[in-house]
């Protein structure tokens, strides 16, 4: 079992390049299955979730090769449209392959995606939309059998909640469907825009991505293309949080400040200094940062739920009291216990966390409970006095490509054993 050993308290300084976005790479890998000819995806992060996605493509009959952050996919011969049960359980977001398999073959058999550390992860919005597009869904002993005997057709779909996954899945099913699909109350995350840009480069007919209303005109065929995945905005936020908690000064390269809506202004409320030119973000923080009176996670362009745990770690040693409300997921404070063991003063009640800033945290052995909760403990360890031993880091490896290497470039004392 690997672990990360962190000797905290070092001011982070220097520059590092930001990896490609996991939450853009996954839906785009799925979209490649809709195309004939080869797709080459550049700036693809090397993560366990990406490897799992490549395994799903391979098991469906695609040729999928990954070398040095570039993945090439050949999807001419799709042999089957089944998502292996083991991979469904390994990665909840495998559900994103349902839309592409339906779009390409008109059928799909998959296991019900397990819940995950964040609480129940329903897919009712996905399934309701597919039914409107002509898909018949049978559920037996946790296996979903989806068929579209007359093919998929466009539909007007209103999402009760701007679900990222549901928006992506509908786009994947709609690009080759007959007729027009309109998604009202669609998610507006930058990863949705990245997926639409890739699909349009492959020949899809999409308008309105990034707004709350997306229109898709089905086409007959899509051809593969070469596409560069956007920078990961949550990894960017994580490195900024590491600089903030150590009072450091860093430059992040190959970043995309425009996608950091709702994150940079929170750092500015903490009295951090952020600026950007082109794809470089310059950031510096005094110590301690100022507390943030109230913060609420919201769908984009609000403050993203994926940055909540990471920000909580910074606010533990802020000057003053902060309050965070997690409105998206039911159970996304699992990192709080470990932060309290490190000396933080946090009370949670339901979806609210109140954080009273303390002078410093202290390194102790802690375990990651989920991807972003693990990243939060990594950030806390960098600012803490003493040694933090972080275990269960497979959670972190799902979303961060060589985190210890990146942080060592910024002067952190961190090793993986
Ligand atoms: C995506 O998950 C991201 N994952 C998550 O990032 C992110 O936290 C989330 O969007 C919100 O931004 C990927 O992109 C792979 P949702 P997704 O559908 O699509 C409810 C990370 O750390 N809901 O927008 O699963 C759901 O229960 C991960 O990188 C329904 O009720 O998120 C949740 O409360 C974690 N019914 C809320 O919507 C549905 O059919 C948000 O879910 C679908 C969702």
Any overview of this molecule?
The chain has 417 residues and is of the alpha/beta class. It folds into two domains: 4-19 and 231-416, Enolpyruvate transferase domain (UDP-n-acetylglucosamine1-carboxyvinyl-transferase, Chain, Alpha-beta prism); 22-228, Enolpyruvate transferase domain (UDP-n-acetylglucosamine1-carboxyvinyl-transferase, Chain, Alpha-beta prism), CATH 3.65.10.10. The protein contains 14 helices and 24 strands. The strands form six sheets. Strands 22-23-1-24 form a four-stranded mixed sheet. A four-stranded mixed sheet has the order 2-15-17-16. α1 runs parallel beside α4 (96-105), α1 (22-31) packs parallel to α7 (190-201) and α8 runs parallel beside α12 (371-383). The chain is elongated, with a radius of gyration of 21 Å. The structure holds ligand EPZ. Ligand EPZ binds at residues 22-23, 26, 93, 121-126, 161, 163-166, 305-306, 328-329, 371-372, 399.
